[in-house]
Amino acid sequence: MQLPTRVLCLVTALDPGDDPGPLLTSVRAAVRGGVNVVQVRAPELERTAFFNLAASVVETVDGEALILINNRVDVALAVDAGGVQLGWRGPAVTAARRVGGPEWLIGRSVHSAEGALRAQKDGADFLLLGTLYATSSHPGVAGAGPGLVSEVAEQVGIPIIGIGGIDAERASEVVSAGARGVAVIGAILRAEDPERAAADLRAAIEEEEPDRAADYKGEPGRRETVTLEPGMERPGTDAGGPRTEA
Question: Are strands 7-11 and 66-70 parallel, antiparallel or unpaired?
Fold first, then answer.
């Protein structure tokens, strides 16, 4: 399993007691609009509710996008997700790798070049880097700006996904600075038309040149040039393997 060449990731948000129906409708629309990675995140949900949400997202996406589960390695395994997104204080990459095996994509949320280097050393496949711009999901946190992307991209060899207060205009800046793509919450989930919002974001990131880590997959220091989209099988393997902190 690999990240798409250009990543547009939708991070879910759901509060306890909320009906997941509207969220699932937005997820479906966003995938139609160009979202190719969905990170299932709802840290306030209790265990069963989170599992049910993850299973529903997998069913809703139906193989049209890569599914990553936030922190919950057990849930990722149970719903046959493509991997996990680990918070910067989340489970160890090595522990997640033992559970998911080499085919899982494992991301680590980081906030600095130092954290990025540590995550790469630990074996993370990609980085979720932020907060890049001020956002309501992290009140009081000043955005680091796309300069942080450039700084980290010069020091690591694994893909970077920018996050935090990103809209279509900012998405272009983030990718231009060296990111593989962007992750968003409100830019899609709070939009009147989630499909149109996703399409605008996708167009913004596709306009930029591929970043320097675009051919990377695997442990640090190893590169391969084949990039598989969700639903495609790696040459020499059978189809049907596993099928993405804001």
Answer: unpaired
235, two tokens:
């040459």
Torsion of CA 31, 132, 125, 91, to 10 degrees: -100
DSSP string for 180-199: SEEEESHHHHTSS-HHHHHH
Domains recognised in the chain with CATH numbers: 7-206 (3.20.20.70)
How many Cβ atoms sit within 10 Å of the Cβ of residue 174? 32
Query: Each residue of 130-189: pLDDT tens digit?
Result: 999 987 766 677 789 999 999 999 999 999 999 999 999 999 999 999 999 999 999 999
Please, which residues have CB within 8 angstroms of residue 7's CB and are 6 or more apart in sequence? 36, 37, 159, 161, 180, 181, 182, 183, 205
State the Cα–Cα distance between residues 90 and 71, nearest whole angstrom.
6
* Residues 111, 119 contacting (CB under 8 angstroms): no
Give the residue carrying structure tokens 């320097």: 212
Q: Which residue has the tokens 């033992």?
A: 98
How far, in Å, are 58, 63, 164 from residue 232 at the CA level? Answer: 17, 10, 30
Q: Are the beta carbons of 116 and 156 closer than 8 angstroms? A: yes
